[in-house]
From TrEMBL:
Signal peptide span: 1-22
Protein name, entry field: SGNH/GDSL hydrolase family protein
Organism: Flavobacterium sufflavum
Gene Ontology annotations of biological process type: proteolysis
Molecular function as annotated in GO: hydrolase activity, acting on ester bonds; serine-type peptidase activity
Entry-linked InterPro entries: AB_hydrolase_fold, Ester_Hydrolysis_Enzymes, Peptidase_S9_cat, SGNH_hydro, SGNH_hydro_sf
Annotated keywords: Hydrolase, Signal
Domain SGNH hydrolase-type esterase: 349-533
Keyword Zinc: no
Amino acid sequence: MRNHIKLILIFCNILFPIMSLFSQTDPAWDNTSKSNWNDAFKKIEITSSLDGKMQNAFLYASKSKAKKPLIISLHTWSADYTQKDPLTNEILARDWNYIHPDFRGTNNNAEAMASQYVIADIEDAIQYALKNTNSDPEDVHIVGVSGGGLATLAAYMNIKYPVKSFSAWAPISDLESWYWESIGRKQKYAANILKATSKDSVFNAEEARRRSPLLQQFPKDLRKNAKLYIYEGVHDGYTGSVPITHSINMYNRLVGELKYGSVKLEDIMPKAVTDTKLVSEKEIISLVTKQYNPAFDKKDKLFDRNVYLSREFENIKLTIFEGTHEQIPQALGLIPVKNTSNLKYNILCLGDSNAQNKGGWVDQLKNMMPNANIINISKSGRTIGFDNNGKKDLNALANIDDYLNDAQQQIGNKKYDFVIVCLGTNDTKNDFADKQKEVVVNFETLLNKITKHSLIKKSKPKFIYVTPPPMRTKNILDKYKGGNERIEQLIPQFTTIAQSKKFSVIDIYHPLLGILDYYAEDGIHMADEGQQIIAADIIENIQKTKK
């Protein structure tokens, strides 16, 4: 099956003369030293349905009354369930259900490493989480990197539960190939594979192949409605431990079977010469040798990363990006969770650039509430009560009557069900650093004016105040320096005032603190996927207070 690709791997080995002399250090994603967990994540025990053994895991149950997605995050090759997961901050920010199972721990024993016990443990973890959280059973997602990527692919090929999506980052797909690649690089992983698959010191290639997702039976009918995403950094195999061929081969094999009924790469690869849905040997060799694609589409981005190759067929997608052996920090933002609502309210939004910008939280509300009528009177640079950059029209307090009169014209004879206010970021700029007491006074006056306007008396809407999001504290424009600290000091005062005016308050500042830096390139304005967090919180608040 792998004759064509073995030629490429042999060629790759020629490219790594230094690696054959010196062993590589473990990549960062196989780091097992960090194990401190937030108290929100509870250690639990799950009895195996296969052999009765106890499996440990960390579990987070959403605090929401509404159904939320379930994320199964799989640890790396050399780790177990205690390995600190960088996704946890965002899990808390999104308030999604989450489980981090052990699935037989480190990949250095026969029960681990994509065995039948691993598959059973992952399935048991899903069932436990579904029973003990408010998870939507139709919104279950598996994600893993490195050894967790191997387990993700193994789950895709083997588990029975109808998982909605599988995201495999820098995965191993062929344990036999990786054994020899690890031998060549003098890495510990070869010894791990030997220990897990062999009863003596002789490598059991047959057992390694049996555990390899690349060579397993593809359950096409079971995965008809499931999405598989394979992500790989183009430098992996050089600065990481898993050559990019593992990802490409897995993609080609699955697509080849779907399109041509072929399960062997030697039968599939000739078709890739003319079939642009597949990745050809020429493209593979070019990516492996150049670690770059001179003809890449500069508009095709994985957040801030260049994408050098992207292929997609039906529900299977491959992405080779500028990176190494890693899972990017925004991985959860790429998972296709359910995020639409049938709510049909009339909603007025008053905010600043995070609300006005394309892809901002108002756009996300419109996408997530397609049946709602959302009027946006937000403006970039708007303040609560100052002439920002000398522009009087950006002063909400001075112009609120005009804003609301305009909102009345836009709604016509209808009534607003909700009015959402999200202001305060621009009032904390350096220009207004010595006027923060005025900000508080202006805020209270603004809310008073809003609640007494004729539009409000006519509509009698519910009010929502969304706190300003956090700002980056370093590597930010001078005009925003110190702004994050000022926002933090203002939020308790804003909250007290807003609640006294019958506004529901949504605190987005604190949940976003741990993830802002990788969703907001400029430290202020988050990418669409980050703005979705704000929109989701608003929708949940609306659902709680709906008439």
